[in-house]
Please model this.
Amino acid sequence: MEASTSTYKFKLSLSFFFLFLFILSANVSPAIGRKNRIEPLANRNRTSPSGSRPQTSSSGLRTYIVHLHRNSATAAADDDDDRVVEWYKSFLPSETVAANEEGKKPTTSSPRMIHAYKKVATGFAARLTEAELEQIRKRDEFVHAYPDRLLPLLTTHTPGFLGLHRGAAGFWNDSNYGRGVIVGVLDTGILPTHPSFGDGGMPAPPAKWNGVCEFNASSCNNKLIGARNFVQGQAAMRETSSGAVGGLALEAPYDDEGHGTHTASTAAGAFVANANVAGQANGTASGMAPLAHLAIYKVCGEAGCADSDILAGIDAAVGDGVDVLSLSLGGGSAAFYSDATAVGTFGAIENGIFVSCSAGNDGPSYGTLSNEAPWILTVGASTTDRSIRSTVQLGSGAEFVGESLVQPSNYSSAELPLVYPGFVGTSDAALCLNGSLDGIDVKGMIVLCDDGEISRVAKGSFVKSAGGAGMIVASTESSGYILRDDVHVLPTSHVSYSDGLAIKTYVVSAASPTASISFGGTVFGAASTTPAPMVAGFSSRGPNQADPNILKPDIVGPGVNILAAWPSQVEATNVASSTFNVISGTSMSAPHLSGVAALLRSSHPDWSPAAIKSAMMTTAYAYANDGKPIPDESMSPADYFATGSGHVNVSGADNPGLVYDIAPDDYVAYLCGIPYNSTMVSAIVRRRVTCSDVSSIDGTNLNYPSFMVFLTAVNSYTAVVSRTVTNVGAADSKYTVQVVAPLGAASVTVKPTTLSFTEVNEKAQYTVTFVGNVTGTSTSYSEGYLTWISADGSIVVNSPIMIAVG
Ligand SMILES: *[C@@H]1O[C@H](CO)[C@@H](O)[C@H](O)[C@H]1NC(C)=O
Ligand SMILES: *[C@@H]1O[C@H](CO)[C@@H](O)[C@H](O)[C@H]1NC(C)=O
Ligand SMILES: *[C@@H]1O[C@H](CO)[C@@H](O)[C@H](O)[C@H]1NC(C)=O
Ligand SMILES: *[C@@H]1O[C@H](CO)[C@@H](O)[C@H](O)[C@H]1NC(C)=O
Ligand SMILES: *[C@@H]1O[C@H](CO)[C@@H](O)[C@H](O)[C@H]1NC(C)=O
Ligand SMILES: *[C@@H]1O[C@H](CO)[C@@H](O)[C@H](O)[C@H]1NC(C)=O
Ligand SMILES: *[C@@H]1O[C@H](CO)[C@@H](O)[C@H](O)[C@H]1NC(C)=O
Ligand SMILES: *[C@@H]1O[C@H](CO)[C@@H](O)[C@H](O)[C@H]1NC(C)=O
Ligand SMILES: *[C@@H]1O[C@H](CO)[C@@H](O)[C@H](O)[C@H]1NC(C)=O
Model:
């Protein structure tokens, strides 16, 4: 395809490609969130966005995740899986014992044990009555138990302009396209026959690979090296609440939703030429790490993802030998010891595995994050610089540039009467809901509809069946300037919230309002409608609820209008050719960063997960392609609770100069300092910890690549924190600090102000003293940054500073 298109277009389409794949449409995506009123599975009685604890059944059975200590007798069983499982079973009632108080027979013949954990947790998931759990609590080896919950997947939309160029010099070549690295994806499974998972040019998996392919043998290959299904907890929950009898037999890990196929291809899909949706965003699709291997762990089904299954998937992935874990799922904030993802991923990072997770789709409200543990890379979603233009021209001559994925080439762009049903009908009519346009004359007209409640594509179908000739969809206020590329059924333009207001003003004031829609195709860079990147309205925001002392999210990456692989048998709303799909969400941004982590793992095999994460964060950039600070969905500068350290800079992350490393053991002092008690810390780290014997630290003092500091009367408005950097750049190097203190809120003093190194991997420590401005005390947050700059200015190691005084 390089022969006929310019290199520029080719490069952009590569990176956009994957981003695009996920964008499909709200009503096929399992994403749900407070701000995302489109809940595709609502009619299946889906669970709440923050993750729901299922009801106890009539039989009194409920699924619990139980954490245990090994005692001296069981310690010997460490390496013997069968003996460990036997030990776990000793906690469970015999299968024939009646499960309810009335002494009736159990209403189900299914096994009580759902998962036996071996690597990242000592314990199991099982269906138990309250009374049985009480008995387990009395055993010496008991540590902690919590009820299973169902978490949603986190799809919404994406982009991609990460500067990875095929066949050229640069980071893709330097990192060998992720060759030999194994990316484990916990999601809805995969369509193994999709061209994105072909293995042309792929090496055999590394010798350490120890995984399993639950498809028939011919479906796995050197790209898709393993695939397993763990969706049991969900089935058990459903069974438990319905009381139905049924086995828990598992099928092969086919993707019935599309989500898992999309995320896997985004992280590590192969090059596929001529990928497009409805002819738009055409180009060569590829994952971020096209030569990395994929290992698939199906932990999510149509109802969501059970904590017990997620833990089982991570447990298996660690045993199988993956290098990177990608999780595009998450519930609301939870204490780390009662959050299976936090517990399981701690075991993963102890095994040197990098973990990238979605930040959540509950923005733009504050305090809406998922996956807040400091050992996880928490990834928010932003746009790319690709637009698929659909322009509205009003009778007044005013023009508004919107987007639509469907761009019929034979459309005549006639000027037609324009109507906003919200002015003549009910509030449902403003949203163009089913039936709401009855009795409103829209025949042959262009109809303005407000976004929300149902998918934009569905609104178009109702407008079309009411006789409408075209549609303009106005964004919600919380989506602002974020425009979505949907597969519309009639000529459509999705315009911003403010453009929607301007169009309504025109409809009110004009004697006979008219409009036309014209299509401008796929454009990139400065030609795109809005600056890029721009943080998506749906991208969840800090502050971190589980531990306010750690700034989250960590980073943003492409998550709006992302094109990636799609199983064609999954209904992709009106997509003519559904081999690829464009969808959006932090589900799309997390696998971009997983793929980037695979590239970094390949180019720096000796880096720890914390070092890779630090490299990504300290090199992230803060400015959009118009030279101004990265905006949020309302076009105001985005704050750190939206962007974290900024937008990933893939080539910058390859050469970060200094990294903030964290050893797994450092988290013990951190967890004791949250403060969690010894029991809870033990549940996470899988060994007996006595916090009183540990010199605990609070999150501000964890060696994190960003700063979140509270200055209050309790600490006399003063905090002294220390950090240790490790030189991963040139042996002889010198860095000088530059600090921009949060304006008017605090002073920031760094000691020393220069750091000199003579060796690679040499460490240096510095302290930062924060003194709050007491006269200005308010509980609001203020932002600054601290940057180490190399002597020649070529390396910039940046850390955001967020301060709360008061
Ligand atoms: C949801 O579940 C409730 C109770 O289980 C049931 O009454 C209702 O009909 C279900 N709704 C749908 C849409 O299935
Ligand atoms: C890619 O890297 C190899 C060394 O790993 C180098 O020999 C080759 O020239 C590079 N390719 C390009 C296009 O820069
Ligand atoms: C293996 O699975 C693929 C689809 O995943 C199917 O096309 C093929 O027929 C299967 N082969 C056998 C031997 O069952
Ligand atoms: C996509 O691009 C390729 C290469 O430029 C071209 O051959 C193909 O026709 C294009 N497909 C569409 C649907 O535009
Ligand atoms: C445009 O082309 C499509 C498909 O080729 C066809 O279905 C449609 O009727 C055409 N519309 C007009 C206005 O010609
Ligand atoms: C719209 O409403 C009608 C009448 O209630 C119903 O028959 C139809 O199935 C609905 N369509 C959709 C797509 O929900
Ligand atoms: C990304 O990092 C590279 C290498 O440090 C730098 O040249 C480039 O300007 C950065 N990109 C952005 C958008 O900041
Ligand atoms: C830790 O806290 C939990 C409840 O939050 C409690 O059940 C447990 O006994 C505590 N453990 C210790 C050692 O205090
Ligand atoms: C402290 O805050 C007050 C009130 O906001 C402001 O006027 C003053 O300039 C601040 N002082 C410093 C040193 O930042």
Q: What stands out?
A: Residues 408, 410 surround 2-acetamido-2-deoxy-beta-D-glucopyranose (ligand 5) (CB under 6 Å). Confidence is low (pLDDT under 50) at residues 1-51, 96-109, 155-160, 240-248. The first helix runs from residue 7 to 21.
